[in-house]
Amino acid sequence: MWQLLRGTTEIIVQDGFLYVPLLFDPDIAAAVAAGGGEGRAAVCSCEATDLNAGPATPLLQRQGHYFIQSLSLAALVDHYDAVFPEEYERARKACLGEILSRLATCRPLLDSTLQAILFEVFPYFLRTRIGKKRPQGRNVEAVLAALAASLPTPVRADSLLRALAEQVATLQGVVQWLAARQAAVAALPPPPAGGPALQQWLHQALQARIIARELARRQEELAALQSWQHLPERQLAVLLILAARGAAEVDGIGFCRDAKRSGAYWVYKRSGPFVLQDYYGRPYLFPDCRVAVSTAGPFQPVVLDTYKHPLLRRLAPRQPICLTDYQPPQEFSAPAVIRALQEGLNALYYGYNSRKRNGYNSLDGLGQHHSVVDFADWRLPKNDPRLLSGELEVKNR
Amino acid sequence: MTAIMALLLDRIKAGREQKPGQQIWPPTAFAAVAAIVQMFGLTGLADLESERPRRETLTPGERRSLFPLLSAAQYQLTMAILQEYDNPYLGYARTPGEITISHQLWQGHAKIDPMSLARTSLTAIWRQQSAGWPK
A24, A60, A70: best mutation site toward chain B, by most B Cβ within 10 Å? Predict the structure, then answer.
């Protein structure tokens, strides 16, 4: 782009658009001749329009030369980062050079994924409700109180709290610096008609755009950090510890970082021990396992632990659970995670039919398919006291 | 061989004969002249006859565009050349010299088939025709 502006090509600016010399072939020459006139000539039947500048004709005639309308200057500045990402990044570094080093330490306290897990998925499974109704929206304080109760006391996060305060102070300084720069570049003159001044004007417009965008972004980050600062100190400490650790578990629901995918988490729910019975009514004790779904997708529930089950293919970790009527959603959302976890748990509890012997393996080793795992080691006597007392429930009775 | 087999063979042969063979994309005179004007940097009609040293022909990497777009000055020169040297062989010219040769060739030999024109340069054809080689 800068080469075009720097080059010998004559460019005219009018009504906020760049006009470049018209190139000819016989059809274009005929069209120009048909629509030809003095001054501004409308050659094309379709008129280019600009919301800011109003309707503009696509062809100009200056001193016997024709110029065709090309880019809108406003659109060029607005979308410069998408069209010329490398040049934009260079301009951004040149413009924000003083504060980029300070911003390197500023990170959002919670990313959007972790926020959705903590304040939308967790409340669904945690018993944070008051009365019969499930609380609507984000129940931040109740979740943090439950998490604080689950963590060993006393919670010490002095260094994390100090780091947060420093981060807020840094962001405030950066926002002030950006606001001062924005005030300096806000009064941008109208674009020149062409020539070398156009390149300089475009550079200034790009700087103003970079500063405005950075200011909005940093103000948003500052507001988010300051909103967390209103929390009680103990809850804020819990939040900081969770953000630093990237893992937590309360009442069987938990999350942990996905080591293989950056920025992704495994959200899991523990099944607890349960009993399934085979065709002959013999009970089998299935130990506790973690049914999980990755926030990076696919939203197919898996069993994180090394586990065996009629609806799992073999004895291995991270096996997807066999589900028949479940269409996993394509994008991450809290409802998608909740539904995937519920579908997975329901399949483990109630998905195996001892008469049909469905799934990859059957408990009694018989059935249409050859079982690759054996469940004999998990078999319980029918008079097991835990069964008789009701401590263990037979799910597929 | 049965009569049916012979009939089938005849039909296959007849079908193959009716199928079009290799077809030549007819080059337009405007595209050919525009490519020469652009690549050789011609500025006027006099450049066609000038003796100044210049490149021999277009390199394979500089294949001419099917739908060239020219600046106003180049377009005017291209149209002037087309008007001055208008002939059916102009689309096969690859150098400024061949523009003049095409005119002379068409005046002397107006029935050269398009396949020969596409495969051989106009200069080579002109030399063959001048030497009195069989057409």
Answer: A24
